[in-house]
Specification:
By secondary structure, the chain is α/β, with parallel strands linked by helices. Helices cover about 30% and strands about 10% of the residues. The protein has a four-stranded parallel sheet, with helices on one face. Strands 9-10-11-12 form a four-stranded parallel sheet, with helices on one face. The longest helix has 15 residues.
């Protein structure tokens, strides 16, 4: 039994049943109401983005996590991209990998542990840019949130660190097998840092997308970044045609005098619309929390973005109580599931065009309930 067979067998034990294995419910089939295959960029369809794959059920940024997300009905899978020492793009949440691989238990790499400054913050650990791809491939992925997702730890040690090329190969295979187009939503992680380290992310990203025929305006791709300057460079210097999304949270982009709030103002969105195709705001920027921790009224952000022709894909929706508004929690145990469907219903009613979720099956169900 190879590792893919292990994954398929293990999928039977997912917290929510995998559609491809036990019969596809209508809400997860990836087909529209006329039973026609759906394109990833269907304009009338709210997009479900498998955040780091199906990271609520498998260690994040593994081929197993991405595959499970697609089989659960996600329209897009999301790899965060960092570089190896030999310039290969790999999928990791951060370039520091002690929390997502077993590197700290590998004595042969003990001397690689160092402290670096990443976007102005001192970080100690092991970093992808200090490993060749061949060395990284000897490591195995582990669950990043073991206290929250203890069940995911059963998969520790089974899966490699995938390359961006392997993710796109998986996307092609699953699109054919599932008879619907699976999109890919890559994020450039710390692009200024990697440029300064002599390992720019932009050139290999664009080259890889072009090799797979994905550099076009209607490609099932969104390239995302928290750095506006990075998106401008991709569009102008590298002539990337694929859709671009500006991610936003609190504070400011690294090494940028403008805050995220300025970029998301009506005037800022008007300026961004000349370069990008959508925004990916932290979900509290769409519907903030009230003083008591419950959901408040939506802001004007969705309407402001739509006025400029921009899509809105907020992040990140997770099923566990600790990630939910206080009025949508079930009980007092932080790691147990709360009312994520109710939270998603509020955002769908607010008019978002898609959303990132660790639980793609529940995201697809929420969309189906909203459309019903």
């Amino acid at each position: 039994m190879d590792r893919r067979d292990l994954f398929i067998a293990g999928a039977l034990g997912a917290a929510v049943a995998t559609p491809a294995l036990i019969g596809v419910p209508a809400w997860a089939s990836g087909e529209d109401r006329d039973n026609e295959p759906v394109r990833a960029h269907d304009r009338d369809r709210t997009l479900v983005v498998g955040h780091r794959g199906a990271s609520g059920y498998r260690p994040e940024h593994t081929l197993a996590s991405y595959e499970l997300a697609a089989r659960m009905g996600a329209d897009f899978i999301e790899p965060d991209l960092v570089s190896t020492r030999d310039g290969v793009l790999v999928a990791r949440h951060e370039n520091e990998i002690s929390g997502t691989t077993d590197v700290s238990a590998r004595p042969e790499f003990a001397t690689r542990r160092v402290t670096k400054t990443i976007d102005g913050v001192a970080v100690t650990g092991w970093f992808t840019e200090d490993f060749t791809l061949a060395e990284l491939k000897t490591l195995r992925a582990v669950e990043r949130l073991p206290a929250v997702r203890q069940r995911n730890m059963v998969y520790n040690g089974l899966f490699e660190v995938p390359t961006f090329t392997e993710v796109l190969e998986l996307r092609e295979r699953l699109s054919k097998e599932l008879r619907r187009e699976i999109g890919v939503y890559p994020e450039t992680k710390h692009p200024t840092y990697f440029q300064n380290a002599g390992l720019p992310l932009e050139r290999p990203l664009v080259a890889t997308l072009r090799r797979f025929g994905l550099d076009r305006r209607d490609a099932p791709v969104f390239v995302q970044s928290f750095e506006a300057a990075n998106l401008r460079e991709l569009r102008s210097a590298h002539r990337l045609k694929a859709p671009l999304v500006f991610l936003a949270g609190a504070g400011s982009p690294f090494n940028d005098p403008r805050s995220y709030a300025e970029y998301l103002s009506p005037a800022g969105l008007r300026e961004l619309a000349g370069v990008i195709n959508g925004i990916g705001p932290e979900k509290g920027l769409v519907i903030p929390r009230a003083a008591d921790g419950s959901l408040a009224a939506p802001t004007s952000l969705v309407a402001d973005a739509h006025r400029e022709g921009l899509k809105v894909h907020p992040y990140t929706f997770r099923a566990e109580n600790q990630f939910l508004p206080v009025n949508l929690r079930n009980g007092a145990v932080p790691a147990e599931y709360g009312r994520i469907l109710d939270e998603l219903a509020a955002y769908l009613a607010a008019g978002v065009d898609g959303f990132f979720t660790d639980n793609p099956d529940l995201g697809v169900l929420a969309r189906a309930l909203h459309r019903a």
